[in-house]
């Protein structure tokens, strides 16, 4: 299967889950997340607003905020095309839909959180393999976001993929720009690809 066929196949797998399986899976992922050593004291972290059949993040995001963490969410960069910016989410946050129809915080310069200030970056994905290679929706947004981390410029940042177990495959085709993830959390377990 080529990259596009594999993406389609993996999207189908995910779509086949019931909403009950989805919500139960998200609760299990939250339980794993809450046990991470990095989250044992209040931190700044970035998550994402789940759409379609993605692992639901609404309850995860709310719970992380209730645990005392500061939450940031991605917005499409207004100037730097195809890049993301991360904005702090707070009681006064205004929301709007971006060009993909995904709700995002309205851009306010004072809410911008540089990647260097984040401890954890929760990353959506369509598929992942035995080496942490990741396949997303095909926009390259997270590959671009993670490029500086991959180059060793963000040593305090910990990227973590969130997925259902059915998104795991033995091996994904990888391109030069693809950034592999050090960890992925699924309902079943925490996959650690470091070392
Ligand atoms: N660091 C980068 N700099 C420039 N272009 C990039 C970079 N990373 C990815 N791209 C471009 O983005 C496009 C899509 O990449 P890819 O298929 O890997 O997306 P993806 O990893 O599935 O998506 P996403 O990261 O948004 O979830 C490719 O055409 C690639 O050339
Ligand atoms: Mg990629």
TrEMBL record:
Binding-site residues for substrate, renumbered to this chain: 54
InterPro entries: FTHF_cligase, FTHF_cligase-like_sf, NagB/RpiA_transferase-like
EC number from the UniProt entry: 6.3.3.2
GO biological process entries: folic acid-containing compound biosynthetic process; tetrahydrofolate interconversion
A GO term for molecular function: 5-formyltetrahydrofolate cyclo-ligase activity
Keyword Metal-binding on entry: yes
Residues involved in ATP binding: 3-7, 134-142
Enzyme class: ligase
Keyword Thylakoid tagged: no
Taxonomy, superkingdom: Bacteria
Listed Pfam families: 5-FTHF_cyc-lig
Catalytic activity: (6S)-5-formyl-5,6,7,8-tetrahydrofolate + ATP = (6R)-5,10-methenyltetrahydrofolate + ADP + phosphate
SUPFAM superfamilies the UniProt entry points to: NagB/RpiA/CoA transferase-like
Keywords annotated in UniProt: ATP-binding, Ligase, Magnesium, Metal-binding, Nucleotide-binding
Cofactor: Mg(2+)
Membership in a protein family: Belongs to the 5-formyltetrahydrofolate cyclo-ligase family.
Alphabetized PANTHER family for the sequence: 5-FORMYLTETRAHYDROFOLATE CYCLO-LIGASE, ATPASE INHIBITOR/5-FORMYLTETRAHYDROFOLATE CYCLO-LIGASE
Name of the featured protein: 5-formyltetrahydrofolate cyclo-ligase
